[in-house]
Design brief:
With 158 residues, the protein is mainly alpha-helical. The protein has one domain. Helix content is 59%, strand content 0%. It is elongated, with a radius of gyration of 17 Å.
């Protein structure tokens, strides 16, 4: 079912999931107390930094930031935050959802985090990866062998 692939902008998906997470706490927000608020603020700041750094990397390489048209990419970006995540913008959005969940305490809203990750992995990242493989071939495959989809570098046996 490819009809959903690259159709809904990831920030919209994140906003819908965040809205459902907030709705799920039934008016009892900020249940986690001061520590949760501090952790949520740190997660949100890290998210904004990661998203901003990724966006700047795209701009420096003069390639598209449009997630709905991955086939229009003109450069394979592998530096900066892309050394640690093949999808730092989506990772940043995931961190924003973690911040929302932290503010709600420890209830149903935490389901939003894996729901977002699963949706984005299937309907956004998978088609982007196909497009990148087609556009950049062996360079992209080598990059995938070095950097995880969400977070982390792979050890390269030498």
């Amino acid at each position: 079912m490819v009809t959903l692939e690259n159709k809904i902008p990831p920030p919209v998906v994140m906003a819908v999931v965040a809205g459902a997470m907030v709705w799920s706490v039934d008016g009892r927000y900020l249940q986690g107390g001061g520590v949760a608020i501090i952790l949520a603020a740190l997660a949100a700041l890290l998210a904004v930094a990661v998203i901003g750094a990724a966006w700047l990397s795209f701009r420096r390489r003069r390639t598209t930031v449009n997630p709905l048209a991955p086939a229009t990419a003109t450069a394979l970006v592998v530096e900066g935050v892309f050394c640690y995540s093949r999808n730092p913008m989506y990772l940043g959005m995931l961190l924003l959802l973690v911040a929302v969940a932290l503010l709600g305490g420890f209830g149903w809203q935490w389901l939003g985090v894996p729901i977002y990750a699963g949706y984005i992995s299937r309907w956004q990242i998978a088609p982007e990866e196909r497009a990148m493989a087609e556009l950049f071939g062996a360079d992209y495959q080598a990059y995938c062998r070095q950097v995880h989809r969400w977070l982390g570098r792979r050890s390269v046996a030498g």
